Amino acid sequence: MTTKASTKQPDVLVIGGGNAALCAALMAAEAGASVLMLEAAPREWRGGNSGHTRNLRCMHDAPQDVLIEAYPEEEYWQDLLKVTGGITNEKLARLVIRASSTCRDWMRKHGVHFQPPLSGALHVARTNAFFMGGGKALVNAYYRSAEKLGVQIRYNASVDKLDIEDGRFVAAYIGQERITAKACVLAAGGFESNREWLREAWGQNERGEWPADNFLIRGTKFNQGVLLKHMLAHGADRIGDPTQAHMVAIDARAPLYDGGICTRIDCVSLGVVVNREGQRFYDEGEDFWPKRYAIWGRLVAQQPGQIGYSIIDAKAIGRFMPPVFPGVQANTLPELAQKLGLPVDTFMQTLNDYNRACRIGTFDHTSLDDCHTEGVTPAKTHWARPIDTGPFYGYALRPGITFTYLGLKTDETAAVRFNDVPSDNLFVAGEMMSGNVLGKGYTAGVGMSIGTAFGRIAGTQAAKAAQAALASKEAAHANA
Asked: Which stretches of the chain score pLDDT less than 70?
């Protein structure tokens, strides 16, 4: 099969269709390059995981349009350092942080709108800029802008393999169709939707379970990691642990794919979480929810049956973003345990031990308050209040995987590297290189910061590479 799109060689080929790919395509087009973008999904599912996003984490030294107060570089860096446990490339992380302070005007130029600062339960109006209409509106705005700039877009265009010679991109293949370009940007996502690869990465645990079998995919089903696997097999330098990912505890009733943000359970820090044996297993009040929500998917993945249960009482209602499904409700704790299928005696022992250990100070869910436990393991270091006021609610939790961190090693030019030598015409952005910044953990909005920063760099560098190739060709003709 040959199409018109493949008869004329574009300057820049962008493989992918989400935020990072779109940023790359827009920057390359703005630089004067002809651009062809290949999106694996059909048009109605375009945009990858970006359609499920809501915001961008932004550095700023003073109040700025939709951002209140200040969120300086060093604080952003310390937040990232804390969640990653130091498994991050500081140079590239700081590049992302600085880029996040200046990208919004460019985003607005391409039709993205931001909503006024949020108040209420989210407490991220200082650190995060929220997209008006969410990620879907952002994706649609970028596609409209790309089309106006003359970017060719093909849907249902899944790339199987690349021709690479001496670290240089030569061609991409959609089945038997061969597409050449002077430069290429890889922004095709991670492997979170590839169940076989997830099983291989996570293996079998000591209980004989295959944890990955119980993972739900918060985002797109089209991120199969085909191109990532192909690149790793052909010697591209790799970075990241295949079991590390942006993984959130989500409602166990969520769909297998595309459940998005509304399936997240946000009441964890207001109560306790137990496993199927009725036992607590981690500090629910360790830090503010936007900095800690992304560790809970992995915590649940390590529990028997890869399931947990978030338990709250009436005092918590109205203090968190309600999920898409209502919780299981009961008038007493033993009744709640029965409804959730948990061992009543163990569950009640856990709740009684926790309630007795609570040392109530001044409860304040907007600060790291002094309500904590004493004499119970695990401790709850903030927001610890007895669960004693009916009705009681329980939410079954499953690991919800957003995107994986295994990827291609890169540098500040976004170049793909082979044996530590950067390619001069093959670049990478988004989930395919996020492991350079995110070795583990996550903090709200940083994925879009990485995709935006490196998408823009990759697009700019690809356009330069294409111009250099054209200049070289013209010089060769002149000398012939």
From this structure: 1-7, 118-123, 477, 480
- Domain positions in the chain are 4-190+225-243+405-475, 245-400
The confidence score (pLDDT) of residue 2 equals 33
DSSP 361-396: ----TTS--S-EESS-SS---SS-----SSSEEEEE
Query: In CATH, which of 3.10.50.40, 3.50.50.60, 3.40.640.10, 3.30.70.360 is domain 4-190+225-243+405-475?
Result: 3.50.50.60
Structure tokens at 53: 């996003």
The SS3 call for residue 288 is coil
Burial-class residue 274 by CB neighbours within 10 Å (0-12, 13-18, 19+). Answer: buried
For the stretch 152-197, pLDDT in tens is 999 999 999 999 999 999 999 999 999 999 999 999 999 999 999 9
pTM: 0.93
Of 174, 89, 34, 182, the closest CA to residue 454 belongs to 89
Q: Is 448 left (phi over 0), alpha (psi -120 to 50) or beta?
A: alpha
How is residue 69 written in tokens?
């107060």
- Cα angle 422, 242, 161; round to 5: 55
Cα(181)–Cα(304) distance, rounded to whole angstroms? 49
Pick from 95, 99, 103: which is nearest to 437 by CA? 95
Q: Kindly report whether the peptide bond that precedes residue 378 is cis, defined as omega within 30 degrees of 0.
A: yes
The per-residue pLDDT for 392 is 98
10 Å CB burial of residue 284 (0-12, 13-18, 19+) is buried
- Helix 134-148 to helix 19-30 angle, to the nearest 10 degrees? 30
What span, in angstroms and rounded, lies between the C-alpha atoms of 232 and 369?
A: 46
What's the CA gap between 480 and 477, in Å, rounded? 5
Nearest to 15 by CA among 35, 44, 42: 35
245-400 CATH pick, 3.90.700.10, 3.40.50.300, 3.30.2350.10, 1.10.287.3510: 3.90.700.10
- Beta-strand pair 238-239/407-408: antiparallel
Distance of CA 137 to the CA centre of its chain: 18
Which are the contacts of 208, defined by CB distance < 8 A and separation ≥ 6? Answer: none
* DSSP string of 422-463, one letter each residue: EEEEEEE-GGGGGGGT-SS---TTHHHHHHHHHHHHHHHHHH
